[in-house]
Each structure stands twice: as C-alpha cells, then as structure tokens.
C-alpha cells in the first residue's frame, strides 16, 4: 500500500511541477518533515532541503514569466523527475525519474500553452505567473493526499485533450474565399 501512496504522491507532485518546476519541492519538504510521505528519500525531511526548495522555487516561478517555452518545459520535466524520485525513491527507485519527467514535461507543455493564451488575451505577464505559481502550490498540497495524485494526472490529460480540441476547432467555421 505504501508503494501505491508513494507513486500517487510522486505523480501528483510531477503534475504540480508542470506549473512551476521547483515550488512543489518545497511542499514535498514540508510534507516529509511532517511525516506524510511514506516513500520519500531521507534528505527530503531536512530543514535545509526545505529552505533551498522554497527559495529556488520562488526564483524559478518568477523567472518563468520571461523564459521561452522550451526552457519552461525542460525545467518542469527536470522538476517532475526530481519530485517523483524524491517522493517515491525509497519505494520505487529510479523509475520515478522517467515517469516524473514525462508527467512534468507533458503538464508543462499543456499549461504553458494555456498561460501564453491567457497573456495574449490581455492578462498581465506577472499576474498570470503569480496565479500559476500559487496554483502549483495548491496542486502540490493536494498531491500529498493519497490517491489524489493519480486524479491530478487524469485531470492534466483531460485539460490537454480539451485544449487540443479547442485549437483544432478554432478556425473550423472559416472558409477560404478565392
């Protein structure tokens, strides 16, 4: 049962890393300190890790406002790999790196397109970035709840399919006039 909980927490935190790559590691550190992560690696519950994760997370979340899309996706892939491995590495060694990277990068690809559309639609770059950073903390906190991480992965897939469908039908009613 601990393997299932650890994998769920790792998957959910990887989804949160798709929003902001490092902030979810701060939530992971707090959860590990409180003893809520059964499969976490031992250093996750150290206060030094928590402080570094929160500071780097705040800097990365702010920098996300100006980073190009490929770099945001790559950072989220790395963050997802780290989050999954640190969360479930004691129970699921090394597989978390691959799974977390795929979930983090995939979620980042979806959310980056949504964020860019929100900015293009009139949202301020810094305002949208702040909302996404807070959302990553909320999603990471939800991911700590056992089994909810799998639900978050399904929700990310649903948003990805929905945004793809929206893009395909955006100009569906227009005809080419010659």
Offer a few descriptive terms.
single chain, 178 residues, mainly alpha
How would you describe what is shown here?
By secondary structure, this protein is mostly helical. It is built from seven helices and no strands. α4 packs antiparallel against α5. The longest helix is centred in the middle third of the chain and has 26 residues, at 95-120. The relative contact order is 0.21. The model has no long low-confidence stretch (mean pLDDT 91).
Count of discrete domains: 1
Q: What percentage of the residues does DSSP assign to strands (E)? A: under 5%
Question: What is the chain-wise order of helices and strands?
Answer: HHHHHHH
Helix content: over 70%
Morphology: globular
Quick recap of the structure?
With 178 residues, this protein is mainly alpha-helical.
Q: How is the topology of this model organized?
A:
Blueprint: H1 2-17, H2 23-33, H3 47-63, H4 69-88, H5 95-120, H6 125-143, H7 148-169
Helix pairs in contact: 1-2, 1-4, 1-5, 1-6, 1-7, 2-3, 2-4, 2-6, 4-5, 5-7
């Amino acid at each position: 049962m601990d393997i299932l909980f650890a994998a769920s927490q790792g998957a959910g935190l990887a989804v949160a890393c798709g929003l902001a790559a490092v902030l979810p590691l701060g939530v992971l550190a707090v959860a590990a300190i409180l003893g809520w992560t059964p499969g976490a690696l031992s250093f996750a519950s150290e206060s030094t890790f928590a402080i570094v994760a929160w500071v780097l997370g705040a800097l990365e979340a702010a920098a996300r406002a100006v980073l190009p899309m490929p770099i945001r996706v790559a950072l989220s892939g790395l963050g997802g790999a780290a989050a999954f491995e640190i969360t479930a590495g004691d129970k699921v060694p090394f597989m978390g790196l691959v799974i977390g990277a795929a979930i983090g990068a995939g979620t980042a690809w979806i959310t980056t397109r949504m964020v860019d559309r929100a900015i293009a639609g009139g949202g301020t770059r810094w305002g949208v970035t702040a909302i996404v950073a807070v959302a990553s903390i909320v999603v990471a906190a939800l991911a700590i709840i056992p089994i909810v991480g799998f639900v978050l992965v399904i929700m990310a897939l649903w948003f990805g399919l929905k945004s793809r469908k929206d893009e395909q039908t955006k100009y569906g009613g227009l005809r080419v006039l010659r």
